[in-house]
Amino acid sequence: MTRSASHRASIMAPETALSEIKPKIEFRHVHKHHGALHVIQGVSTTVRAGEVVVICGPSGSGKSTLIRLINGLETISEGEVLVDGIAVSLLRGRALQALRSRIGFVFQQFNLYAHLTAEENVSLAPRRIGGLTKAAARQCALALLERVGLSDKTDAFPHQLSGGQQQRVAIARALALDPDIVLFDEPTSALDPEMIGEVLIVMREVARSGITMVVVTHEMGFARQLADRVLFLDEGEILEEASPERFFLAPSHPRARRFLSQIH
Ligand code: ADP
Ligand code: MG
C-alpha cells in the first residue's frame, strides 16, 4: 500500500496538519563544487514534514553530496539549503550541532564504533548530547534495539554482528536523539542480498512512524511502496521528480528510462 504525506496529514490533528504543509527541507538553487568538479548543478526542491523522498541516480551523480548538504557535512558553494526555514550554511558550532542532533544519518558502511557494544553505540549520543544519565540512556538504547529486532544483541560488538544487524544498530543509533529527519545514504548497498530484507523492514517501520526521510537507494521495492516522491539525479541535476507510480511506470526522461532498465 502506498501511503502519502497528505493522507497522514488528514488523519492528524488540525494544528499538526498545518505544520505538515511547511517545508522541512528546502534546496534553493544549490551548487556544489569539489575543486574543478561541478558536482551539484542548481538543485531546487522541497521536502515536507513527514515525507519520504527517495533519491536515485547513477554512481557519481551527486546523491551523497546532496544529502550531506542537509546536515552540513558538506559545505555549499552557492544557493541555500534550509531546514525548518534556517539556512544550514549560517550555522556554526553549537547551532550546527543542535541541527545535527535533530537529523539522524545512516551510512552505507554503518560506521559503528568498533570498540563499543550495540547498546553503547546507541546510547552514546543520548548521554553526550542529550544529557541523559548512563542508566536512562541505556534504557533508551535498549528500547530502540528492541524496535529494530536486536534485543538479543545489545552487548555484542560490531564485529560479532552480521552486516544487516550492524546496519540495524546504526538505524537505532540514528533514532536515538528522537530526530525529526533521518537521512539514509545507500543503507543496503554494502549488504549481502539475504540481509537487505531485514534492514528494509526496519526502514519501513521508521517511514510509517511519520518521520521525514530522505533515502538514497536503488531498492525500488522500498521506493515503490513507501516513497511519496522519487528524485532522479544525473550529473548533479534533478532530471525527474515524480510519484513512484509515475517514475517507475513511465519515466519521462530518457536517462531515467535507461537507468531503470539497468537496475531492473
Ligand atoms: P554519488 O553518491 O551519486 O555516487 P557523490 O556525491 O559521492 O555521488 O559524488 C559526486 C561527484 O563528486 C563524483 O564525481 C565524486 O567523485 C565527486 N566527489 C565527491 N566527494 C568528493 C570530494 N570530497 N572531493 C572531490 N570530489 C568528490
Ligand atoms: Mg554515494
Q: What gross morphology would you assign? A: globular
Mean pLDDT: 92
- Quote the distance from N terminus to C terminus: 21 Å
Largest pleated sheet:
6 strands, mixed
Strand content: 15-25%
Helix content: 40-55%
- Given helix and strand content, the structural type is alpha/beta
Rounded to an integer, what's the Rg over CA atoms?
18 Å
Describe the structure.
This protein has 264 residues and is α/β, with parallel strands linked by helices. The protein is 41% helix and 24% strand. It is built from eleven helices and ten strands. The chain has helices spanning 5-10, 14-21, 63-70, 93-101, 118-128, 134-147, 163-174, 193-208, 220-226, 244-249, 254-263, and strands spanning 23-34, 37-48, 52-56, 78-83, 86-87, 103-106, 181-185, 212-216, 229-234, 237-242. A six-stranded mixed sheet has the order 6-7-8-3-9-10. It has a four-stranded antiparallel sheet with strand order 2-1-4-5, with helices on one face. Helix 5 (118-128) packs across helix 6, helix 5 (118-128) packs parallel to helix 7 and helix 7 (163-174) runs parallel beside helix 8. The longest helix is centred in the last third of the chain and has 16 residues, at 193-208. The protein is globular. The chain starts with a helix and ends with a helix. Residues 1-12 have low confidence and may be disordered. Magnesium ion is lined by residues 63-64, 185-186. Residues 25-260 form the ABC transporter domain. GO terms for molecular function: ABC-type amino acid transporter activity; ATP binding; ATP hydrolysis activity. InterPro entries: AAA+_ATPase (IPR003593), ABC_ATPase_HisP-typ (IPR030679), ABC_transporter-like_ATP-bd (IPR003439), ABC_transporter-like_CS (IPR017871), MetN_ABC_transporter-like (IPR050086), P-loop_NTPase (IPR027417). This is Arginine transport ATP-binding protein ArtM. Belongs to the ABC transporter superfamily.
